[in-house]
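ugh ok fine here u go
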Amino acid sequence: MKPEEFVNLTVRAYNQSKSVFANKINAEELVPKELSPLRKSQYIFYVLQLDYAMKSQILYRGAQELTKRIPDFFTPEYLSKTPEYAVKKLIQEYLHPRYINEALLRYRHNTEVLLDSYSGNPRSIFTSSTSCQEAQKRLKEFRGFGPKIGSFFIRTMINTFGYAYADIDGMLPPVDVHDVRIAYLLGYTKSPEMTAKNINLVKRVWRDACIKAGQSWLVFDKALWLLGSEGHPKNLSELVGLLTNSEQ
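structure:
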């Protein structure tokens, strides 16, 4: 199966919301709907930067519970005025990051940058950028917003707020262990290992395949994550079965 054929099959199955795609649990769908647009952007900004080295659903479930308890928690105003020991306790209790000290460093540094450069509004990162490439460069100011988290943040913000950039299709999508494993099952890479070389190869495979298929990677990336994390395909037949069964 050519990569572009796989992209079309995956996006079509995702849009039909069947089988493994029935329950949409991507980051975009887990932002509390009752929040204002500003608060939604702040929630995305603070929660996504901790979406590494842990089970995503634990993070988002805890973030929703924390928002119910303290509606202002995921705001730069609250985090800049609350003692660090209190923030640490709440993060540990609700978000359960593997590296609590790194989580605190990110929150402290990124809050300062967000307030100083963007008046506390993550949407300004995008409204002040004329291209996706410029938005990516702006994210380098923030701690932890590297190629994976940075691209993931861009995807979530664009899908949530509809920012339009002429260069969006040329952007390399974020890649995690699920993406690499699926690419390996399909024969697009020779190894399922998370090496820098392999990760970069898979990024280019998915980006180029989406362009050839005429599909947005902003949608394909959501579908791919669900396919890998919820479907758990162990071989090629299982992978294809998950996609074809969802169309029946």
